[in-house]
Each structure stands twice: as C-alpha cells, then as structure tokens.
Amino acid sequence: MAFYDNIKLEKGMYQTSGKTFSQALEELDPSSAYSAGETAGLDAFERQLKRFDIKVSGAGSDMVEKFFKTTDSAALFPEYVSRAVRAGLEEADLISKIVATTTKIDSLDYRTITAIPSDDEKELKKVAQGAKIPEINVRTQENLVRLQKRGRMLVSSYEAIRFQRLDLFTVTLRQIGAYIARTQLADAIHVLFNGDGNNNAVTGIATETADSLTYDDLINFWSKFDLYDLNTLLLSADSMKMLLALDEFKNPATGLNFQATGTLSTPIGAELVKTSAMQNGVIMGLDRKCALEMVKATDITTDYDKLIDRQLERAAITTIYGFAKIFPDASKLLYW
Q1: Which residues of the chain have pLDDT under 50?
Q2: Handedness of CA 40, 45, 48, 50 (dihedral sign)
Q3: C-alpha–C-alpha distance, residues 91 and 139, integer Å
Q4: For residue 300, which of 155, 158, 181, 171 has the smallest C-alpha distance?
Q5: Model-level pTM?
Q6: Domains (range + CATH), the chain
Q7: Mean pLDDT of all residues in the chain?
C-alpha cells in the first residue's frame, strides 16, 4: 500500500497558516518521492483523487456524490472547487498582459513604494572623482493600496447536483473563474484611469481632430512614451473597429496573421487587448513592464466548512486583491 493511501484528510488542513490545502498536503506527501510508476507526474491532491478513484474529467467522470462517500474524500471537495475556478480564471486571464509584478501579502494592509524622478534625475550625468553621486528617492506611498474582495456565491442543494457528472460541474465552476478574471481586469483598468489614491491618475492626450482617429495620432501617442515602451493598448470593441479601419492596418500580412492565429499585429508594435471594461473613444497605452502592480491577499478560497459539512447549500468562492501604479508615466490615455 502506498504512503498516500494512509494520510488522514480533514478540514483542519484548510486552516494551515500561510498554506493552501494542496501545499499542506504536499508537505505530508512530497511529490519528489514519486518519480516513477503510475503516480509519476501527479501532485499530492491528484494522488488523493486516485486513492479514492475519483475521476473529475472526461467522458467517464464520476458523479459529485463520489466525493462524499467517506469523510476523508469529502475533505477534497473544496480543493476541487478551488482548482476548477482557478482554471477558469487562468483561461480568461488578461491581467497578465498588463501587470508588471504580483505581490502576495498576509494582511489586509499594504503600502507600495514609488520612485518618481524629476527630469534632472532621469539624466545620468557624469560624476567627477570624489563628487557626490546624484540620488533618486524611493519611498513608500502615502496611502494604502485599496483591496477588493470579489467572488461568487455558489448556491445549490446537494440533491440537485449529487448525480451530476463532475465534468459538467467543472464547466460551471470554470465559468465562475472567468467572471472573476473579467472583474479583476475592470478593477485594474479603474486604477490605471483614476490612480490608486496617491494622486497618480492617468494623463490624457487628445487626437488632432475630435471624433476621429488617424495613424498620425497613434504615432504622436507613441512618441509620448519617451522613457518607456508602448507595448500594450487597451481598448473597447468600438475603438478596436476604428483602429482596424486605418489603412495602415489593412496590409496583407496583418490580415493573414489575424486569420491564422487570431492575433493582431500593429504598426507601432503594441499588443491589442480588447475589453468591455474600456469606454468608447479612448485607448489606454502602457508599458506593461513597469506600469501596474497586483497585490494579492488571498488566492481563490472557498467556504470549506459548508462544502464539507453541508454539501453545498450556500458556499462563497472569493479572492482578495488590489492594484497599485508603479510608474505613473508608464501609462497614458489617447482620446477623441
């Protein structure tokens, strides 16, 4: 009998400080001990699914009630829910296209740092022998990063889903993850527009002619990113259509690339990110390498007590996060 067959599973494993259920389980049953055989390549949670013969995907997936055959297997259900939601979030992820770094914290208070050099400080001047080296001041921001708690309440009776296949139930959970991903993007864009509470709202540049967008406007916009790379453009569907109508976007190579891969190349080399979180008539340009920081207080979490003891009914699936601007000048707005 393998070691993982003898591990006692309980809901207290979800309360381990600073660790997820999977991390606590991995500590008890390290994957490094399974380099060969039928369990090779599985993590500690997946080995427990194998232990209880629970198939969560594919045409032969089990029914939801399989998790609740024993008290040990029931302890796996909240982690299954979290993983399915996380998979949906990752599939719909656009945050990674605009976030420079992600900071994980263990509290609800976080104050980020900033370094906003003057024009004189941006220039690396010659330093004479024995002379003082010019300084750039790195300091903490005056205001805390505002954290948001987002999620969905999963409401269902056990009787309603106990005979449903896990493969189908996973689709519903992944959609919850997709909803969270879209909300995260909207929150990030709100911070890019309005700032993070430290007097760093985005600055805007108007097109030469009202209600119109030209290639010259884009070139002028690109030129404003003097010390940064304009590598990402955020825009709505209507703004995207106006952009794609420009003659410079109608060359055969751009069309073939879009038809073959669904990826649009742009004359200024920036990646286009279409989202309903952007209003019409504006384009947000940014250097994703240094514009925005994401702060996470929690990953995807579930009401494990309710999922284990009450077999659903009402269980919250949530995550707590926030955003902070790193270099305010690394994002700018073009509007018409």
Answers
A1: none
A2: negative
A3: 36
A4: 181
A5: 0.86
A6: 198-293+327-335 (3.30.2320.10)
A7: 88
